[in-house]
Amino acid sequence: MIYRLGIDVGGTNTDAVIIDNNLKVINSVKTPTTEDVSSGIKNAIHLVLEGTDIDKKSVKYAMLGTTHCTNAIVERKNLCKVGVIRLGKPATMAIEPMIDWPKDLSKAVSENFIIAYGGYEFDGREIAALDEKEIKEFLNAVKDKVESIAVTGVFSPISNVQESRVKELVKEVMGDVPVSLSNEIGSVGLLERENAAILNASLSKVAKNIALSFKEALEEEGVESSEIYLCQNDGTLMSLEHSLRYPILTIACGPTNSIRGAGYLSNLSNAIVLDVGGTTSDIGVIINSFPRESSVAVEIGGARTNFRMPDLISIGLGGGTIVKEENGKVVLGPESVGYKITKEALVFGGNTLTTTDIAVRLGMADIGDKNKVSHIDIDFAKKVMKEMYSLVLKYIDNIKLTNEKSPLILVGGGSILIQNEIEGVSEVICPENHSVANAIGSAIAQVSGQCEKVYSLIKISRDAAIAEAKEKAINDAIDAGADEKTIEIVEVEDVPLAYLPGNATRIKVKAAGNLKSI
Amino acid sequence: MKLSEKEIEQIALGASLLGTGGGGDPHVGKLMALQAVKKHGPVEMIKVEDVPDDALVVPAAMMGAPTVLVEKIPNGNEFIKAFEELGNFLGKKVFATFPIEAGGVNSMIPIAVAANLGIPIIDCDGMGRAFPELQMVTFHLYGQTASPMVLADEKGNSVILNAITNKWAENLARNLVVEMGGEAMISIYSLTGKQLKEAAIRNILTYSAEIGKLLMDTQASKTDTTEQLIEKMNGFKLFKGKITDILRKTTSGFNFGTAKIEGIEENKGEQFSIEFQNENLIAKKGDCVLASVPDLICILDLESATPITTESLKYGRRVTVIGIPCDKKWRTEKGIETVGPRYFGYDIDYTPVEELVLGGASK
Lengths: 518, 363
Prior knowledge:
- The complex is a heterodimer of chains A (518) and B (363).
- Chain A has 518 residues and is an alpha/beta fold.
- Helix content of chain A is 31%, strand content 27%.
- In chain A, strands 3-2-1-4-9-10-21-23-22 form a nine-stranded mixed β-sheet, sandwiched between helices.
């Protein structure tokens, strides 16, 4: 038998699971997340293996979903200095790159940019030809000041020729430095795509660190012969090598893993998922076994981006949320005791009243010492619980797109909601192993490929355009490590661009398949 | 008065409310305005009454597909040469610029243009809100014409267009815009100070900034933003509810549709609907019309009172719908003919929102 090791790093807990080839859970652990993240991962690997008698050499796949990249951007730590190249002059001069970033983030990431001649019109004509001398001069000027390069051209999702040429020029002038091309990361929307490309470039060092420390931790724990993957925010995996080029795609993989894990554990491919964590609760939607993607701009560390992200509602209500009473009104958080819950919550002998204490008082959970909360007024506890319900119910309704009833899967600490009927929900499911759904989501993840491009349907028929996009997505999935025989097209989206003549349409195809076996 | 960063943020927020669900995302326009004042210093804003009668004043706006606007951002200096040429053509220098509409992205463009060209901006517009078509401006009501029209692109191309009717101006301009790459800076309705005084909706930028400031301040202090907005704008709370359905159809580039809203709190058990064509046009409780274009129908987030655009309407959102009387220039025979419910294809007569609400129709 061969095994998979799945790990998910959250704000409060680092979870690990071992599953066998039939995707059956062999063992799972929940350990506190550490400040440096890496030692927590190592600890989780150690504990989950310790609890089983499997041969460590039979762990053939190791998957990691981690918050390293999010943390690096939020804390502005370990970020690379990026040389930013925008191709668009004479257009786009009215808004310089990073103009609306928080000052501390742009200072940490880049103070070197150029808006150079180049870019395309919506119909593929060049706005201006590339001026290679101009690009080379910029590269020579910054080559001792920056560690990676981000390139963003106007309408590069329509034609990537100029961006690719700049990549060659970077290699010529600077040698082997990481280059992020915007057309590989984001979609139409210049500033948001540029932001995503710059952030991706700034994560090059962090990506290397994750790869090295995960590999090291596995080796130290005796897991030597496994293929290593990182989880992406669309619920699929990428190889370590791939992750070095697209680290930003790991951002928000945690909630995605929970959603996918929840779907797998309850054997449902369409449902609403509520994941109650320590600090926040995430509500998401699973459609055809994958999380629904967000259609609006997403801010990361204060910068607006438009790369794919799961559509989530995150509410400041978790097991560690601090409960207060002000002028007879219940106030829930948004502060949380977070990972300090085992010291600060009343049931653990602390001095802070949390939502967990309320659940224990009402007999809905059995955590810590229930005698330590017996003094809480039962009517007050009921009032708090009512408040929590109405908050959660409102957002469950909010994430739905129609009035139709849908099943609700509860994972993480959400199980206390199971005793109640919920409006607009057909059934409430709380599957076995629900508390480690996120780590399971990382262990069962598939490999995917994607193609998103704007086609002019004057030059190519719609069917031919979709076929071309499908082929590109499938090849992309194979490159990422998918078994060709199991690849399926999981999504085809075809959006005509309003107001534009020439039948311009944006086609997006996603393919996913199982991991190629060794 | 000077417009700098703070005022731009306020006006942009106010513009999202005056956009009544349409007008385009002011984000790109706001960033253009912010960069322009950062580079050239604050913009001087003057009152309509301070414009000399014989001065040449021209609005500045963007025309094109929204998908292109978010990708091919302008250069910022498109109008430097174009305004000079227009000045030569008319034999006068451009004295100042102003917004053609107070809602959405075009509320911001003139601020960037004024900063880049070093000319003042006038505290007025031609709509007092946002509308989808070029002739839907108060200037049209006073017989003023769109020509000569100026179009300019980022590459340095510019065109001065003389059309025999406003309809011709629109058709010729659309074709030029496509050739220019799907987007252009445009200027229509060049006016004299005297014409401006006659036809413009005055003090709209100040008003927009006040609305924006009220939204920011009350959201920060968590006081009842919606109530205060209604008081400030002499508006009416039309309905409180949850969106239960959005029916959309895109026809000839416009975002048509109906939003259905189910009542909550004091409106529990009641049904409400809003018809939109980019902007919100008709608001009905049951079968009873509570407000119609040209009065402003704004959908606000129930909790934060943040204005919601028609593109981001979705199932489950809790909203407050408010109705606000439009400028009295629209409440004339020609005004209603130009922008009333019948022009948009609805078989109803326009009645002012205050009569519909206070006249007992709401009960």
